[in-house]
Amino acid sequence: MNYYLLVYGLYLPTTVLLTLWVARTLFTNGRTFLVDIFHGNEALADSVNKLLLTGFYLINVGYATLTLRSTDTIRSYQSAVETLSIKLGTILLILGAMHFLNLYVFYKLRNRAQAYARAYHS
Question: Which of UniProt's keywords are assigned here (predicted)?
Answer without folding.
Answer: Membrane, Transmembrane, Transmembrane helix
